[in-house]
Amino acid sequence: MNVPDLTTYFNEVIKNDPNVSPAVAAIKTLLEYIRLKSFSTVVELRESVIDAIDVLTRTDSSAISVRSGCEMLLRFITLTALDAGFDSGMEKCKEILLKNGQVFLSKASKARNKIARMACAWIPSGSNILVHSKSRVVLEILREASVKNGTFHVYVCQSAPDNSGMSMMEELTNFGIKCTLILDSAVGAVMEKVDFVLLGAEAVVESGGIINKIGTSTIGLCAKMLNKPVYVAVESFKFVRFYPLNNRDIPDEYKYKYSTISTVKDLEKEHPLIDYTQPSFLTLLFTDIGIFTPSAVSDELVKLYL
User: Fold this and answer.
1) Which residues contact 59 (CB under 8 A, 6 or more apart)?
2) Distance between CA 283 and CA 227 in Å, rounded?
3) SS (H, E, C) the chain
4) Cβ partners under 8 Å of residue 186, min gap 6
5) Does position 108 have pLDDT exceeding 90, yes or no?
6) What pLDDT, in 10s, does the model give residues 262-299?
């Protein structure tokens, strides 16, 4: 599998399953790459995978989400080399890696349902909830809560520039959930009405803050000022080793699509697609490995990567 094949396979995975996370699609692509390619040493395998990751981050999918999932796979490669033993051949090591990779994918595919079962208890009947953009995890939580807990009302931000909130509202309406589409600029006015904010995330960074769709930071700031809880629903494979202090620390490769970076000379004139929300704006994170405060995220990252 060469460089063009990597990108094609990755895009096909996303096209065939619109609900798949870019991180999971990247892991599937890398596992297929490892399966088809021959390696003589673990070092060669690791270096080849790192090169492949660089290729996958140069697509128009969420670069930081792709990188977070791929870093998990790199950890598996290191652990697999230890599990296989130094006397085992490369084929044995590769076999164990692919097996572990399938186990990881199986767990990742069940993560949303696990989070939904855990988080729906936090959504009582009669609640007014604010959501932003279209998050597959948030959608699953609200669907589960509507079945188990009764009725509630959801305010959905339009989420410019791609207006993904409109798609979110359509899906919520199909589930029979009452919802209202609001302008992004109306967040301050609507915040007074809501009981809490429920967000997804592209990535969770080491500080306990999140990187998510542009506008998330503004929502967090408004919620903080009005003492509204902000809950984040996110899979653990989106925990990433990255420590931004503010939005200026987010590299352009995360802020813009690769096609924009490669064709536009002055990015200051372009609309960034994501922003960083600091941990002080967040209340709890609902994940498939438990419910955490933002301050506990760094401890969980240590557990995941050691």
Assistant:
1) 7, 10, 11, 66, 258
2) 10
3) CCHHHHHHHHHHHHHHCCCCCHHHHHHHHHHHHHHHCCCCCHHHHHHHHHHHHHHHCCCCCCHHHHHHHHHHHHHHHHHHHHHHCCCCCHHHHHHHHHHHHHHHHHHHHHHHHHHHHHHHHHCCCCCEEEECCCCHHHHHHHHHHHHHCCCCEEEEECCCCCCHHHHHHHHHHHCCCEEEEECHHHHHHHHCCCCEEEECCCEECCCCCEEEECCHHHHHHHHHHCCCCEEEECCHHHECCCCCCCHHHCCHHHHCCHHHHHHCCCHHHCCCCEEEECHHHCCEEEECCEEECHHHHHHHHHHHHC
4) none
5) no
6) 898 888 889 899 999 999 999 999 999 999 999 998 78
Q: How far apart are CA 295 and CA 280, in angstroms?
A: 9
The CA-to-CA distance between both ends of the chain, in Å, stands at 30
CA distance 204 to 295: 12
Task: Determine the pLDDT at residue 69.
Answer: 84
Pairing, β 210-213 against β 196-199: unpaired
Give residue 180's pLDDT. 97
| Tens-digit pLDDT profile for residues 52-96 | 889 898 888 888 989 888 887 777 666 766 665 555 677 777 888
Question: What whole-number distance in Å separates Cα of residue 254 and Cα of residue 275?
Answer: 9
pLDDT in tens, 165-192: 999 999 999 999 999 999 999 999 999 9
Determine the Cα–Cα distance for residues 177 and 141; give it in Å rounded to an integer: 12
CA distance 199 to 220: 10
